[in-house]
Write a structure and sequence with these properties.
The complex is a heterodimer of chains A (446) and B (222).
Chain A: H1 10-62, H2 75-80, E1 82-87, E2 92-95, H3 100-108, E3 113-118, E4 128-138, E5 141-150, H4 151-187, H5 189-203, H6 218-261, H7 269-294, H8 306-320, E6 325-330, H9 342-359, E7 363-371, E8 374-381, H10 388-391, H11 408-421, E9 425-430, E10 436-443
Parallel strand pairs in A: 6-7
Antiparallel strand pairs in A: 1-2, 1-5, 3-4, 4-5, 7-8, 8-10, 9-10
Chain B: E1 2-6, H1 10-22, E2 26-30, H2 33-42, E3 47-51, E4 53-54, E5 57-58, H3 59-68, E6 75-79, H4 84-92, E7 97-100, H5 105-119, E8 126-129, E9 132-135, E10 140-142, E11 148-150, H6 153-164, H7 172-176, H8 188-202, E12 207-210, E13 214-217
Parallel strand pairs in B: 1-2, 1-3, 3-6, 6-7
Antiparallel strand pairs in B: 4-5, 8-9, 9-10, 10-11, 12-13
Chain lengths: 446, 222
Amino acid sequence: MPIAARPRSVRGMLLILLLPAGIGLMALAWIIHGALLDRMSTDFVESRLQDEVAFLEHQVRQSGGRIDTLQTGDYFQEVFHHAFAIASPSRQAISPETWAPLLAPLLSSKQEGAVRARGAEVPDAPSEMLGYRRAFSVDGNPFVVIVAEDMQALQRSQAELHTWTAVVSVLLVSLMIGSIWVGITLALRPVVGLRASLKKLQSGDISRINADGPEEFRPLVRQLNQLLDSLDDRLERSRDALANLSHSVKTPIAAVRQILEDTSRPLDENLRREMASRLDDIDAQLESEMRRSRFAGPQVGQSACPVKQARDLLWMLGRLYPDKSFELSTDLPEHHRWPVEEHDLNEILGNLLDNAGKWSSRWVELTLGEDQGQLKIIISDDGAGVSEAARSQLGKRGLRLDEQTPGHGLGLAIVHAIVDRYQGQVHYTSSKAGGLAAGVVLPGAD
Amino acid sequence: MRLLLVEDDPLLANGLSAQLEKAGFSVDTARTARDARQLGQQESYRAGILDLGLPDGNGLDVLRQWRTHKVSFPVLILTARGDWQDKVNGLKAGADDYLAKPFQTEELIARLHAIVRRSQGRIMDTLTAGRFELDENRQTLKAGDDTEHSLTGTEFRLLRCLMSRPGQVFSKEQLLDQLYSLDDTPSENVIEAYVRRLRKLVGPDTIKTRRGQGYLFDADSR
């Protein structure tokens, strides 16, 4: 099972991640604090005990090994709250007396340095103590000195400190939870704003989302607005197209119906031709509006494979014009993508290549390339070419430079319309073979 | 000249078949994809006119089926959609030409004569070398895995030259003869560019370079 699979909200996700992490880290800090405290106090006590042992040893050495002359009394216990035991070959001195059952076995043991004793059930003596034992000899007589401290008392005060730390930790954790909550709420405020804007957009109170907001959301808002723009644009265009279409189609239909309904009128040659021309008008209108409404323009998430599409179109035209050669010249890799809608690119390439195919005598070449972030298409042929004066008229709708090859005007007009939509340019020059070279430059991906 | 007309609209089918008869064709009409499939495979026609929108199926599927059954008469497709991709798909499925509806009967007849003329003396011509099959009529290359690549004119001529004698070394000068360009001095770099492109289609090891000599087609390489 994945951890926190598909969080329902950013806030929930952040809380789920940050809260346990915060609490866990705080708990870890508390545990480490306890361990360090324990170790520090043990070290401290141990070094003090060691000092005292050294002091006692010094005293013993000064008195020449006679421990009964040591005027210690309850000095250690009163000053340090410590107990001590000194053993010489002749006698033992243990102070206070109640610690004797604990300290006596240690005197006879062989352990040197820090010693611990716990679990002993002796009245008036601690159940756990830390001692320091040292054996030495004075004038050939062995001596043992032990200084010990009641660990329970120390642990009690340690535990108190540790508890206070826990209380402070809990307070800090709750402060942290609070600040995380406030932070998340503040950071997510733009999202709430965005949601409100979307709701308003849906209800029609506003037509575009306000682009203010944190940097992270600005591209998103921009894309959304672009999408809205293109939707509006498309709606408007298709409405216009339909209005134009119905206007220009209904009249010829009415005329043809009129003729067909009039049974008294003979359907002579003239009338037939008239009817056919009306139907042609309808077809031409339909065709031009269809092609116009089909192209998409620049769109998010749309791209085309120029080399693959060019190859298919060149191959097809090669089949349709078997005595002409259609060639491709490009350095682009086979699966290279251009940020142009697939159908639009097909329409640009297809119309220009079809034109070149019609006008060429034997040879058409398509060049695809990229230069400084611009997409470049050049289609050149070896036909008669177009005079420089007439070139500026190319692509103007409804104009056919030569009535012999029909359809010329619409194809180029469509290419111009699509290229305009992408904010590119179409330009015409002479090809090296004396024919026409049509060049298209489109902006590449930013 | 026997001709198969596949068109589901009776008004158009009747009118068209009358006009085609007048132009000297003897016309069989099929109204459905099923009939078209059957007639195309049983009878031998000189040409076919195929409407793409049929009541019981897509005309392109009929065409593909004919072509897989080695029905080779030239086919002109009629389509109401003038989309470039539709045209490409039509030709890839095995059509020889397309005409967008509505059309003038004279143009239809002229195109029919053209595809019949082109198909004359045409047999299913394929050049096979190893796992590669070069369709000379359709200018396509089929690799062993049944993917079909469409080739441009020069790509096709170069590949046909190399595949005609697998294993033989062709010099760059020999290959330059296959190049058809109006460029006055086509350079040998152009050959290299084409070979690079062909290698992407057939695999890098299939066309081998013999340094200083030229190129050879190795049909057995994987």
